[in-house]
Structures are given as structure tokens and as C-alpha cells.
Write a structure and sequence with these properties.
With 481 residues, this protein is α/β, with parallel strands linked by helices. The protein has 3 domains: 3-95, Udp-n-acetylmuramoylalanyl-d-glutamate--2,6- Diaminopimelate Ligase, Chain: A, domain 1; 98-319, UDP-N-acetylmuramoyl-L-alanine:D-glutamate ligase; 330-480, Alpha-Beta Complex (Protein-Tyrosine Phosphatase, Chain A), CATH 3.90.190. It has 16 helices and 24 strands. It has an 11-stranded mixed β-sheet with strand order 9-8-7-10-6-11-12-13-14-15-16, with helices on both faces. The chain has a 6-stranded mixed β-sheet with strand order 17-18-22-19-20-21, sandwiched between helices. Strands 1-5-4-3-2 form a 5-stranded mixed β-sheet. 51% of the residues are buried.
Length: 481
Amino acid sequence: MILTDILQNVILLKTIGKTELDIQNIQFDSRRVEIGSVFVATRGTASDGHEYIPMAIEKGALAVVCEEIPDEINPAITYIKVENSSDALGKMASAWYDFPSSKVILVGVTGTNGKTTIATLLYQLFRQLGYKSGLLSTVCNYVDELAIEATHTTPDALELNGLLAQMVAVGCQYVFMEVSSHSIEQRRIAGLEFAGGIFTNITRDHIDYHHTFENYLKAKKQFFDELPENAFALTNADDKNGFVMLQNSKAKKYTYSLRTLADFKTRILEHGFEGMLLDMNDKEVNVSFIGKFNASNLSAVFGAAILLGQDKTEVLRIISSLHSVAGRFETFHAPSGYTAIVDYAHTPDALTNVIESINQILQGNGRLITVVGCGGNRDKGKRPMMAHEAVNGSWKTILTSDNPRFEEPQDILNDMLTGLDMTEKAKSLTIVDRREAIRTACSLAQAGDVVLIAGKGHEDYQIIQGVKHHFDDREEVKKCF
């Protein structure tokens, strides 16, 4: 592809050399550069691509896109200066793959909790409605029915546009994707054309990356600020920051809610461990999901489907047949009469929501035993909060390892314990080995009790000292049965 065509949507601040070059591929990792590449020097959290420009040229790059042109200019190389290399990369990737997002109806879901559930249920719903559809999510990416392993919530710009191009090639009409705060901040979604955006909620998360909650909020808001006029912006009216997302958005604005007047209003009429009876815009529907947070997620799914022009009755019929996403409030019933629930809840707010939902159903007719840990090399500030929320809502809490990564597991647990007073510590156990923690919780459970295993959900691994080991909470629970 000719470099001029690749750069057609990028604002060029300065050009040195010719742009009528035949480019073989786009790379932002200098190790992958080949003869004929254009190298995009992006700035990351761990390294700066500008330092690798000489290596990229040595390996055969014909052109370099950068924010700072090097002092030493190679006369055989074309240099393009841009304001933001990551933003340029997104737009270049889109052009390289012939603007795939413009050929599908692309809907992005952002927020702290609920992204995976909403995006996945929309994907399942639209496939049942008869449309070829794509999914880009934390758990797995789908090109219609073809599953492709996910490594990040939102892939890098090249991989993202490559997946979208695959979806276009097989005839997908709709694509639903999780949009993480990292991907917004790092401009991985630059150049994509969204038909709609959904906001779930926002609570403390990724402070290790964004440094402050305000920065995290701004990153989420930026997604809605950039939606076009012909798109829809659907926000959760029950979240205090729900309307903040819409303040500067040019998109058509809509709301969903469990508590207040909204375009899409849902009420819980009945609930139990088998599911809920909901009233959705004055129509009753039985669903196999549990908890207020899931009623809210389904409200967003319902609203988005209607905004995408689908028939209300048909949408509700399919919603009644949908099932929970892997590792999201996934329920298992033990032969001895207790219930085990595996959930991805890894923020204080998500954990509180899950615990409250379980206790509302139990109504004192059973005890809640919670197994929870916190990830290593991540936001340390939420560790005492997670422990406090778990102990506060449970009969017994077992603090254990999550993904310790490069930290000592006991150090993480010590951080969690700082959130507990003496009375709360008496209600908790500390077991470093996660397998043993799950076994202990299940051995304590009696008929009618609930064992909640929180934090890892769908993940089938544990990262210890940087090494990935196979570990699946769901498998461990079944072994206990």
C-alpha cells in the first residue's frame, strides 16, 4: 500500500522525504520490522519507541512516523512528524485494512464493571436474531462463530483492525466490543467509527495506571466525547457519573435505570438463585440471571438492541433464553446442598454488588462464605477495601492469592488485612494457597449456604513470579463437589 494512502486521515506536522512509497506492513514493535515496513514510534509506559528508530531502520524500515524527528537524519528514509504517534497508528491501521469499522455497525461498551457481560450478551442476542456478528472482549474474541483467544480487553490498533477486517470478510453486520480505559488513553481505538456507546458504571480501578480517579473518569468520558452525531450514547442513570459521560457528547443521548425514570426502565419483581422476573419497559420477562447488577446489565442490552432498530417483543423473548457469561456470577450446585458462585469481581464495588445480591436472595436463610484475593503489581489502595467489603457482607471470609505476579503473596494479604479491625479479623482466615482456600470454604459450607469465589472468574491461570500456571476456580469447585 502507498504510504500517502496509509496516512490519509493523519494530520502531518512535518514530512522529510517522499511519501509515494510502497509499504509492505505497519509495525510499532521494532523487533517485528521487515524490509519495506513503516515504523510507528509510540510512547508506552515501559518504553519509548523513539529509542528504537535506529534499530527499525537497520531492519529495513522505509519510513518512520514519530512525535520527534531524530537529530540524525538518514537521507534514504522518510520521516513523518505527528502530534500523537499512538493516535496516528490507530488511523493508519484503519486505512491499511480499508476502514473495516465503517462496514459494520460497531458498538462499544465502557465502564468499570459489566462490560464483558453486556458486550457478550449483545453478541449472543444479535446472532439469535439471525445476524452475523462479531465480539471483542476480555474472555474471547469471536469472528461470527470462530473463537479467537483474547490477550487484552481491547487489542492493539493493528490487531483490532485486523480482527474487524476478518469480521467484514465473513459478512458480519454487527460488532460489539469492550472499550477499556487503557485503550482510550493509548488511542488504540483511534480511527474507528462507532455507531453507539454504552456506559455501565465507574468505580475505583486501574489507579496504578491512571494515578487518580479523575484521570480514569476522563479516559472513559473521552470515548463519549468522540462519538459522532449519528451514533447513540446510552448511559446508566443509576451511576452518579452516568450523565458526566454525556456532557460533551454529540451523539443522541439515552438512559437506562433500575431506580429512576429512564428511556429503558427495568424493575426486579422476583429473584432467586435460579433467576429473576423483570419488568422491562412494562413487559414482564423471566431471565436466568441473578442480582441487581445483572438486571442493570440486561437493561443496557435491551436498550441497545432497541436503539439498533430491533423488535421489542423479539428482543425480550431472546433475553429470556440467554445465560450468564463464563466466570460472571457462574453458579454451581453441590450434591450436599450448598451453592458455589464463581465471579470475576475484582474491584471493591463489584465485590459489594455480588455480595449484596447473594444476601438479598439468602435473606438470612443460609450463610455466605467468601474467598477473595487481590492481584499483584496492581493498585495497592484497593486491597484493604476489598478485604473490608468481603468480611462486612460474609459469615466467613478466606483471604487468599489471586494473581500475585511478581509480588510475594503474603505481602498482598498483609495489605488486605490492614483494612480489618480485630472483630473483622476474627471473621476471616488467611490461606495463601488458592486451591486450599477454595477447599476450606467448601468444607465449611452446609446445605443452604453459598460459597463465593471472587476475583478470577473466567481466568484459567495463576501468574506466580511471572510464570503462568493452569488454575481454574470452576474446576477446583467441581473437585470439591
